[in-house]
Design brief:
- By secondary structure, this protein is of the alpha+beta class.
- The chain folds into three domains: about 50 residues, RNA-binding S4 domain (Structural Genomics Hypothetical 15.5 Kd Protein In mrcA-pckA Intergenic Region, Chain A); about 90 residues, Alpha-Beta Plaits; about 80 residues, Alpha-Beta Plaits (2-Layer Sandwich), CATH 3.30.70.1560.
- The chain has seven helices and 15 strands.
- A hairpin with an 8-residue loop joins strand 6 and strand 7.
- Helix 1 packs across helix 2.
- The longest helix is centred in the N-terminal third of the chain and has 9 residues.
- The chain is elongated.
- The model has no long low-confidence stretch (mean pLDDT about 95).
- The structure holds uracil.
């Protein structure tokens, strides 16, 4: 591919900015300064911009600890998105896998792998998603039983549906509030909040801590992200 496309695909700048950077001798290929934007390069070449090596990756996978107050979208005119938080350079065709509400924190996978996105989100696959939540109200064993049986959701947030059985674990329940972990097999719109509303309680804080084989990395502060390891990618890919 052309040198300017190589750099633009990896989010190093716009094609015109990169052409100008190349003219100004800011780009090297395999240690040599290059002045021709149309030079043919491959992912095996070592390309630097301002001394920083830009690796070409066809697929990228990032694990983000999404902070509250940011929307799960690729771009938005008014509000900050999870893609705005991802440090550059990164591919320009990345998107978040599934959606967390603006006020929800936690594990979010960001990739350009459309096949993986489809398999993780397809209702056929029932990929487990685990959430930690704080609840206004004391969660009871009766609630645990109802979640296990599958709760009928019939509210004003969308069409009525019967939720798939969910595993609800009470971490604490006292003085009118609770901490819980819940494992869902699906990802319907606002599902955790709607399940608790259906049993007369309210979610006051929500964080996703796992999705399939991926778990939230405790080293990541809200807003931080890192690339998945080769092993994490392989385990995710091997899931059918
Ligand atoms: N369920 C919710 O209610 N909100 C989320 O962000 C994720 C799951």
């Amino acid at each position: 591919m052309r040198l300017d496309k190589f750099l633009a695909d990896m989010g190093a700048g716009s094609r015109s900015d990169l052409k100008s950077a190349i003219r100004k001798k800011r780009v090297t290929v395999n240690g040599e300064v290059v002045r021709d934007s149309s030079m043919a390069v491959t992912e095996n070449d070592t390309v630097t911009l301002d001394g920083i090596t830009i690796e070409y990756e066809t697929m990228q996978y990032f694990l983000m600890n999404k902070p509250a107050g940011v929307i799960t979208a690729t771009e938005d005119k008014k509000q900050e998105t999870v893609l705005d938080l991802l440090p550059l350079p990164h591919r320009t065709d990345l998107f978040p896998v599934g959606r967390l509400d603006r006020d929800t924190e936690g594990l979010l996978l960001i990739t350009n792998d459309g096949d993986l996105n489809h398999r993780l989100l397809s209702p056929k696959h029932h990929v487990d998603k685990v959430y930690y939540a704080r609840i206004d109200g004391e969660v009871t064993n009766d609630d645990v039983q109802k979640f296990a049986e599958g709760i009928m959701i019939d509210d004003d947030e969308g069409p009525a549906f019967k939720a798939l059985p969910a595993v609800l674990r009470i971490l604490s329940a006292e003085n009118g509030s609770s901490e819980i972990e819940v494992t869902l097999q699906e990802g319907k719109y606002h599902e955790v909040k709607r399940l608790f509303r259906a049993v007369g309680k309210r979610v006051t804080y929500l964080r996703r801590i796992a999705m399939g084989s991926l778990t939230l990395d405790p080293a990541l502060a809200p807003g931080e992200s890192r690339k998945l390891t080769a092993e994490e990618i392989e385990t995710l890919q091997s899931f059918k």
